[in-house]
């Protein structure tokens, strides 16, 4: 007979908390004998603990015909294991005042929980059971597939913005699976079978392919002991070689125009660029981060100041670049042109190019660069101030084959970037051979 996880843990909750002086936050990492990496960030300012279990598998690993399989397995592990019935883990954590969720990305599948420190063993027992004994039954897959297809309909198919971006990302990543939607193409979801899911689970869900990150008001040695107790008995397994998703550096200029009813005009400009993990020069990624800030990092940034506020050709503009990534990345500029003033997305594109070219023709003013650098460093510090965000940050570094130990070295490089570095980076990477341009327009303009 199953012994209730909840029943065994509720009896411990009456124990009084031990009074102690709050020590300074500290981070330590350990490798269990079975290969599981454990990172503990001890910070007693928090009354809760966050557990993040990261697997080194995501949509970038998926072969043709199996897009969405990582996300599908993520859904299925909640539907029962040797100790848990379907949905029981969520119920247990909610009863304890905690939460339980998961997400799939290009390079990882992440399971994350928040709960009181005295119930950390509950989190570990649930996560360990799902790692090693998830059922993934055919009957559960029939229902869960419909749940996923409904999720896709709501988040992608019924959103003009997401539909437009989905095809744009596919074109922008011509030589890897990075352009596939994490949730999967609908026609692939329709033909995924439970045997494929079970095989995917057995291939990738192993302790030596996972990182367990714990942050909060916990004792490091206690966390290590719990990890040994609940995860230590899971045998390591051979996992496939996990190749990095690299793109053709300069595949040539690509363009796509899509029309949707009642859709405000949107313009995407995406450049194929390296990440911090795939760069060959350690100054490239921080220079791209600073370029993002200089172009669209606030009201005084170049695109905002010139094209939104001065010329009013754009209603809004943003720039995105994810430096902490295991794979090649995209530097994207997204804008909403005012077609009454700009007349066309081509005209808006030319004005954006003019602003980009100004950074190629002359380096930015040092005071502008310092302002962007101060903003960027402040954002990074603020992002890690919340312990849940810090857990996410530590895990993202590990998945990207970076390390929290080299954080200061990366900051030192950021502080050393010069205006001339910015100019050279713009000249090298913000070029037409690396560009995908996507215009999303109202259907009413399709025949103009």
From TrEMBL:
SUPFAM superfamilies: LuxS/MPP-like metallohydrolase
Signal peptide per UniProt: 1-19
Presence of keyword S-adenosyl-L-methionine: no
Domain Peptidase M16 N-terminal: 40-170
InterPro entries on file: Metalloenz_LuxS/M16 (IPR011249), Pept_M16_N (IPR011765), Peptidase_M16 (IPR050626), Peptidase_M16_C (IPR007863)
Keyword entries, A-Z: Hydrolase, Metalloprotease, Protease, Signal, Zinc
Gene3D superfamilies: Metalloenzyme, LuxS/M16 peptidase-like
Protein name: Insulinase family protein
Pfam family, one: Peptidase_M16_C
Stated family: Belongs to the peptidase M16 family.
Protein's UniProt keywords contain Metal-binding: no
Gene source species: Pseudomonas weihenstephanensis
Superkingdom as given in the UniProt entry: Bacteria
């Amino acid at each position: 007979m199953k012994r209730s996880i909840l029943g065994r843990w509720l009896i411990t909750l009456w124990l009084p908390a031990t009074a102690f002086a709050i020590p300074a936050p500290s981070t330590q990492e350990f490798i269990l004998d079975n290969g599981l990496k454990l990172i503990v960030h001890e910070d007693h300012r928090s009354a809760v603990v966050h557990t993040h279990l990261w697997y080194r598998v995501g949509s970038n690993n998926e072969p043709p015909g199996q897009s969405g399989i990582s996300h599908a397995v993520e859904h299925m592990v909640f539907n029962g294991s040797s100790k848990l019935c379907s949905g029981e883990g969520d119920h247990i954590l909610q009863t304890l005042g905690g939460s339980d969720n998961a997400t799939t990305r290009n390079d990882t599948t992440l399971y994350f929980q928040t709960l009181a420190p005295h119930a950390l063993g509950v989190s570990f027992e649930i996560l360990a059971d799902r790692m090693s004994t998830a059922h993934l039954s055919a009957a559960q897959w029939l229902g869960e597939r419909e749940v996923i297809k409904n999720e896709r309909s709501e988040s992608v198919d019924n959103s003009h913005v997401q539909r437009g971006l989905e095809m744009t990302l596919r074109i922008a990543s011509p030589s890897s699976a990075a352009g596939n939607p994490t949730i999967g193409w609908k026609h692939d979801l329709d033909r995924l079978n439970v045997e494929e899911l079970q095989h995917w689970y057995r291939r990738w869900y192993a302790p030596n392919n996972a990182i367990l990150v714990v942050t909060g008001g916990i004792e490091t040695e206690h966390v290590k002991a719990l990890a040994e107790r609940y995860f230590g008995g899971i045998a390591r397994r051979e996992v496939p070689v996990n190749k990095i998703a690299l793109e053709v550096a300069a595949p040539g200029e690509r363009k796509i125009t899509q029309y949707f009813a009642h859709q405000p005009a949107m313009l995407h400009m995406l450049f194929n660029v390296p990440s911090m993990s795939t760069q060959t020069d350690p100054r490239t990624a921080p220079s791209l981060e600073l370029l993002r800030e200089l172009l669209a990092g606030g009201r005084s940034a170049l695109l905002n100041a010139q094209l939104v506020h001065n010329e009013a050709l754009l209603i809004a503009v943003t720039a995105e670049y994810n430096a902490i990534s295991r794979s090649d990345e995209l530097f994207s500029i997204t804008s909403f042109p005012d077609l009454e003033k700009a007349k066309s997305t081509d005209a808006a594109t030319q004005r954006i190019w003019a602003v980009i070219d100004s950074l190629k023709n002359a380096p930015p003013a040092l005071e502008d660069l310092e302002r962007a650098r101060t903003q960027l460093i402040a954002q990074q510090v603020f992002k890690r101030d919340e312990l849940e965000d810090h857990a996410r940050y530590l895990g993202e570094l590990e998945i990207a084959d970076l390390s929290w130990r080299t954080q200061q070295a990366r900051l030192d490089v950021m502080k050393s970037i010069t205006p001339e570095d910015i100019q050279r980076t713009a000249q090298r990477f913000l070029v037409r051979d690396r560009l995908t341009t996507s215009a999303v327009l109202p259907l009413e303009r399709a025949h103009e």
